[in-house]
Design a protein that fits this description.
The complex is a heterotetramer, with two copies of chain A (133 residues) and two copies of chain B (279 residues). Chain A has 133 residues and is mainly α. Chain A folds into two domains: 14-91, Protocatechuate 4,5-dioxygenase, Chain A; 103-133, no CATH class. Chain A has helices at residues 4-9, 19-24, 26-34, 38-46, 48-52, 59-66, 70-75, 80-89, 94-102, 106-114, 126-130. In chain A, α3 runs parallel beside α8. The radius of gyration of chain A is 17 Å and the shape is globular. In chain A, 38% of the residues are buried. Chain B has a single domain (2-278), classed as Protocatechuate 4,5-dioxygenase, Chain B. An eight-stranded mixed beta sheet of chain B has the order 7-4-8-2-9-1-11-10, with helices on both faces. A two-stranded antiparallel ribbon of chain B has the order 5-6. In chain B, β10 and β11 form a beta hairpin. Chain B starts with a strand and ends with a strand. The chains are: A mainly alpha (133), B alpha/beta (279). Chains in contact: A-B, A-C, B-C, B-D, C-D. Chains C and D meet through α7 and α9 of C and α1, α3, α8, α9 and α10 of D. Bound molecules: fe (iii) ion (2 copies).
């Protein structure tokens, strides 16, 4: 029988915020949390590298923030709700961030949602995707 | 004597709040979603509860950083809307009900629920959007609110079974509150949605419909769902639906569905709403 | 396979820490208290646990203000001594065990314990004084620690019954941890004392002795004690003793008392210590 | 049967930190919590009234702090563990604060503790005290 962790990791295109990601992304998420204050948002936008230097991020995490590599940040332990503070600082919506992560254009992503969203069929399991079921 | 007379489940999509705050509810994208909210506003205005026990989840906005309670309760006099990264919503301060909140604390802790007590708490869209959906845009907080906050963000979330049990304990707690008080309980979050990763945009209408149906008639099936079930079938962020089980647990075994609304999309999300009255 | 091999109950009186930090342990006031700690230090040095699960209570020092978790767990890599109003104690940073801590989180939450997860946590005398009592004054943290923090300050505290049940769930959780790990669990606080109000200075040696006796032989009597029993008979702050029941619940039904020490006074408090080994 | 609250309030010389006291003393306790930071302790000691003005205390609470009326603060909703931050700021011990609250001299209180502490006999119930039992 698969463990819960194995079952969660088998879901395609999904990065469940587990203890592993929570530990990996702790300081990245704390950076995002700091943006809950308007003064910090302004300071960050004035000089992003200088602001980021206050947080013990990995080089990869720092790059991903500066490039607004949303899926990269998720892979490096960021949680979407923390990221939404960075998105808010940029005046970007959840739909913008989600769209970026799918690799679709914003227009295509919006159109997919208007048409009823992404289907669950073929999206339950990585194995399901490999066999093209 | 206090009494829970009904429960309400609703999505709390932040974009719904933004649409109201920016006066866009009549635009084509939003019109039919908001039309579906008419009946519930009418219903709530007629029922006129004294207090709403509002079960929701914070989205890493207002809880102390690094601190993740499984269940927290706000016992303050009022709760200010949180700045979630784009300034606080222009909505009224939410009025608390410290007397009922502390009564719940005592009853629930003695009953073996390990609450985190919050003297002061700001509230994010998880709480303010359901208030807007159900009450519109009043100048002042239209009803007292006891916030119950649930961790749905960090695995391990409480199980659906534990949420349902919390609801049952809330039912008992309210029944032992000696002030004459009419209570409606909200469970908010969901429905199916995923807003991170390559699978973002997932919507599972069939699953949502079955969830809404079974909430009335067969909650035991929902109580047995696992974390993996929610995350796989309703999307990673669809696991918020466990919060609705607190609401359901607080109602009688027999309930009547008063109204329902389901709309896709609200931003990335399937927006659902249901009202259940005790029978 | 991980295993809890023993439990330790001890007071955590801040003045005991101060006496050690200021080199006063051989003064007449303190000498016989510290002499009684000799056997437990020897025992612990021989047992050499890999990890201590240290159940204690914060004294309004290190938890976020306004936020009172019933049960919190520290999952960080380390825990710095807190400044409690007179500067932090000059003791080493406490090393954490995030792997075991997160394993406990998952097991306990899925088991229906509503923990508050703390990524970062400073630790006050409730945790550092038991480390000093049992390990002396090493330069570095001598053993990894998983802190479990309990609300004993604000009524309603968890019941003794709930604390005991948490201990039983910890026993089960440790047994399912797949790393070869020797665990000792501490329960700290108490014994009888009251440090506020006109009744300050209350000591109830008879009650404490019965508590120590029944911890080994008849824990069910202790599980049935109410909040009022503790506060009335062991002093308002003596209710800290509920934390010892977590330790007892984590042990086997049959335990052997290895050593015991009881001394009055340590400042305002009856200082007790007991070591129980699983049999 | 007495309620839990009635049973707790029947214990003499004891002010259990209930919801009522917790609500009454919230800002008094938050003031104490602020003294966890060394910089705040210094600022408070430099000008106590000015520092206290930052907290929405009642006039009674303000007076009790300034006078170090320890039992008064407890009656106004302070919790002893919060008070210990004020005590620490003054370099006073728990034993000092507790002694003050009993109305005994520090010497008498210390002597009582060395002699085994205050007896439980006659101290379980207010009614017990009234009847002199
Ligand atoms: Fe949400
Ligand atoms: Fe203590």
């Amino acid at each position: 029988m698969k463990t819960i962790k194995e079952q969660l990791e088998d879901i395609p295109g999904t990065y469940v915020f587990t203890k592993e990601r929570s530990r990996l992304g702790l300081h990245l998420n704390l950076f995002c949390t700091s943006l809950l204050k308007a003064a910090n948002r302004e300071e960050f936008l004035r000089d992003e590298p200088a602001y980021l230097a206050k947080f013990p991020l990995t080089e990869e995490q720092r790059r991903a923030v500066l490039e607004r590599d949303w899926i990269g940040m998720v892979r490096l332990g960021a949680n979407i709700y923390h990221l939404s503070k960075l998105g808010g600082t940029d005046r970007k919506t959840f739909q913008y961030m989600a769209g970026c992560m799918t690799g679709m254009t914003q227009e295509d992503y919006r159109a997919m949602m208007l048409a009823g969203g992404r289907s669950i069929e073929g999206n339950r399991s990585k194995s399901e995707q490999k066999t093209g079921a | 004597m206090a009494k829970i007379i009904a429960g309400l489940g609703t999505s709390h999509v932040p974009a719904i709040g933004v649409a109201m705050d920016e006066g866009k509810t009549q635009e084509p994208y939003w019109k039919s979603l908001f039309e579906g909210y008419g009946p519930v506003r009418k219903w709530l205005a007629e029922v006129k509860p004294d207090v709403v026990i509002l079960c929701y989840n914070d989205h890493c906005a207002a809880m102390p950083p690094d601190t993740i309670p499984t269940f927290a309760i706000g016992v303050g006099d009022e709760f200010k809307p949180a700045d979630e990264g784009w300034g606080p919503r222009p909505v009224p301060v939410v009025k608390g009900d410290p007397d009922l909140a502390w009564h719940l604390v005592e009853s629930l802790v003695l009953d073996g629920f390990d609450l985190t007590i919050m003297h002061q708490l700001q509230v994010d869209h998880g709480l303010t959007v359901p208030m807007s959906i159900t009450c519109g845009q009043p100048k002042e907080g239209p009803v007292k609110v006891v916030p119950i906050e649930v961790n749905v963000v960090l695995y391990p979330q409480p199980t659906g079974r534990r949420c349902y049990a919390l609801g049952q304990a809330i039912r008992k707690a309210v029944a032992s509150y000696d002030k004459d008080t009419k209570v409606v309980i909200f469970g908010t979050g969901g429905m199916s949605h995923q807003i991170h990763g390559e699978r973002s945009g997932l919507i599972n209408k069939e699953w949502d419909t079955a969830f809404l149906n079974d909430l009335t008639a067969n909650p035991q099936r929902l109580v047995d769902l696992t974390h993996v079930d929610y995350i796989r079938d309703a999307g990673a962020e669809g696991i918020e639906l466990i919060v609705w089980l607190i609401m359901r647990g607080a109602l009688n075994d027999q309930v009547k569905e008063v109204c329902r609304h389901y709309h896709v999309p609200a931003s990335n999300t399937a927006a659902g709403l249901i009202v259940l009255e005790n029978r």
